[in-house]
Write a structure and sequence with these properties.
Distance between the termini: 44 Å
Strand content: under 5%
Number of strands: 0
Structural class: mainly alpha
Number of helices: 6
Order of helices and strands: HHHHHH
Number of domains: 1
Helix content: 55-70%
Length: 101
């Protein structure tokens, strides 16, 4: 684990405690709610883990909690992953222009 990983885990545990959920449910809810995420692979070894993971899909994190997780986990992306950030993608694909209708 890096220092950044530990910081992310601490924020995740704090949020889970504040809303009465498990860190795993909060993490899954946050990942599934990310822009561009169409599916999530969930590793389970017991049937109750499947039930718990499905319950996480119905969890809606408050905006301030989502923002805290975004802030602590963002930045320092490897070069290629940075190309998929919305601002970079807009610049590369659309030349920085707004192509929405």
């Amino acid at each position: 684990f890096t220092e950044r990983n530990w910081q992310t885990l601490e924020i995740l545990k704090r949020i889970a405690g504040e809303i009465g959920e498990t860190p795993a449910r909060v993490a899954l809810s946050w990942v599934v709610g990310q822009p561009g995420v169409a599916s999530t692979l969930m590793g389970v070894s017991r049937p109750e883990q499947v039930t718990d993971n499905v319950a996480a899909l119905g969890l809606r994190l408050p905006p301030e909690h989502r923002a805290a997780l975004d802030a602590v986990s963002g930045g320092n992306l490897p070069f290629l992953y940075g190309l998929f950030q919305p601002a970079v993608r807009n610049q590369v694909v659309f030349g920085g222009g707004d192509v929405r209708s």
